[in-house]
Write a structure and sequence with these properties.
It is built from 1 helix and 17 strands. It is mainly beta.
């Protein structure tokens, strides 16, 4: 379950995750500018090892809100990710509690979004292991990258895909193998183009 938490912390993923800050191309532009955007995922997964057992956490809902920069590629601060409906392969239900200042930015070549998780940016717990608490990015901020597809007929609003991105984790009351992995697809509620 710890690993599940680790995965989520990347939450993300989400998750949440979706638009983060980090090393980005200076020429990237996010349009439309100065626009409130919410990105959502219906399947955010975290995987890792807790107490020597491989664990996968699957969350059915993840969302992150932010306002696109007036010009350029960011970074901009996001709302705290909201991640829910999480269960794990140990048979437990999982709670992911984000904290701190999360950021998102864009890169145009290749077209990507970069989500920055702050130090100790998410705490994961599972009902399967009492007293086990897992923190994401325990030693400093971590930037995770998603491939981004600009709006077309499908997807109409764009799509960001995190594929097995690495997120460092540390456990209290349990032993966690770090880093864990996070996978998820996020879609904006309005068309967002990176150029």
């Amino acid at each position: 379950m710890k690993s599940l938490l680790t995965r989520s912390a990347v939450v993300a993923t989400g998750a949440a995750a979706l638009i983060g800050a980090g090393a980005v191309a200076a020429w990237a532009t996010i349009t439309p500018g100065s626009t409130a955007v919410t990105v959502t995922s219906t399947s955010l997964k975290f995987s890792g090892t807790i107490n020597g057992t491989a664990v996968t956490v699957t969350c059915t809902s993840a969302s992150i809100g932010f306002t696109t920069p007036a010009s350029g590629n960011g970074p901009v601060n996001t709302s705290l990710p909201v991640i829910s409906g999480c269960t794990d392969t140990l048979g437990g239900s999982d709670t992911i509690t984000p904290s701190g200042t999360w950021q998102i930015a864009a890169n145009s070549s290749p077209t990507q979004v970069k989500l920055t998780i702050p130090q100790n940016g998410a705490t994961f717990t599972t009902s399967a292991i009492a007293g086990c608490s897992i923190k994401a990015s325990p030693s400093g901020s971590t930037t995770v990258t998603a491939a981004y597809v600009n709006p077309t007929s499908a997807p109409p609003n764009g799509r960001a895909t995190f594929t097995n991105v690495s997120v460092p984790f540390a456990g209290t009351g349990c032993t966690v193998t770090s880093p864990g992995k996070m996978t998820g697809v996020f879609t904006p509620n309005t068309p967002v183009t990176i150029s």
